[in-house]
Every structure is written in structure tokens, then in C-alpha cells.
Amino acid sequence: MLSNDIIDQLVSISSKLDNMILPEDNITQEKISHLKNIIITLSDRHSELSKTDLQILISQLQAALIDLDEATNNRIEMLNFVNNIAPK
User: Fold this and answer.
1) Cβ(24)–Cβ(57) under 8 Å?
2) Interacting residues of 27 by C-beta distance below 8 A, sequence separation 6+
3) What is the maximal distance between C-alpha atoms in the chain?
4) Are the C-beta atoms of 30 and 44 separated by less than 8 Å?
5) Is the separation of the CB atoms in 20 and 60 below 8 Å?
6) What pLDDT, on the 0 to 100 scale, is given for residue 59?
7) 80 to each of 28, 84, 86, how far by Cα in Å?
8) In b/e form, how buried is each residue of 31-40, taking b as 16+ CB within 10 angstroms?
9) What's the CA dihedral at 33, 64, 79, 25 to 10 degrees?
């Protein structure tokens, strides 16, 4: 099972993500929602996850983090491009 420290860190990251997105950024909101659902499942201390279920959730968590990273990097690249071509 995951340690309580790891679970607490994941929950903290999840709550901080809510404050970093724009309301009109539906794609990022969807990716964060998916990530948060995985974190909620992992953090449910009352559930008895089998080792296989835990491995699947950890794999899904990793994929969701990579997916969110790609989405935010694409947004940053777009904002940098717009900033570079904007009249100064």
C-alpha cells in the first residue's frame, strides 16, 4: 500500500492544481479531474486495494500526470509564441 505521506502529497498537489487553471481551459480541467479521481481512489484509506489494483492505479496516475504535463506544456508554448509575436 502507499504510505500516508505519498497520499497526502498527492491530495495536496491535486488541490493546488485547481488554483492554477483558467475557467475556460476545459481540456486541462478535464485532465485534472481525471487525475483527481485517481488520487481520490488511491487516498481512500478504507478501501482494500489488491496489489494488482494498486499497480493499475499507479500506472493510471503516471499516465494522467504525463498527459497533464503535455497539456500544460502545450499551453505554455502557445502563450510564449503569442507573447513573442505581440507588438512590444
Assistant:
1) no
2) 71
3) 58
4) no
5) no
6) 94
7) 18, 6, 10
8) bbebbbebbe
9) -20
Residue appearing with cell numbers 491530495: 11
Q: Copy the grid coordinates of residue 54.
A: 494498486
H helix count then E strand count, the chain? 3, 0
What's the CA gap between 4 and 66, in Å, rounded? 23
488541490: which residue's cell? Answer: 15
Q: Enter the C-alpha cell of residue 9.
A: 502529497
Residue 15 corresponds to which amino acid?
A: S
Say which residue the cell 500516508 belongs to. 4
Which three cell numbers mark 28? 486541462
- CA dist 50 to 16, 27, 43, Å? 29, 32, 14
Which three cell numbers, joined as nine digits, stand for 23? 475557467
- pLDDT tens digit string along 12-55? 887 777 676 666 778 888 888 898 889 888 887 656 788 898 89
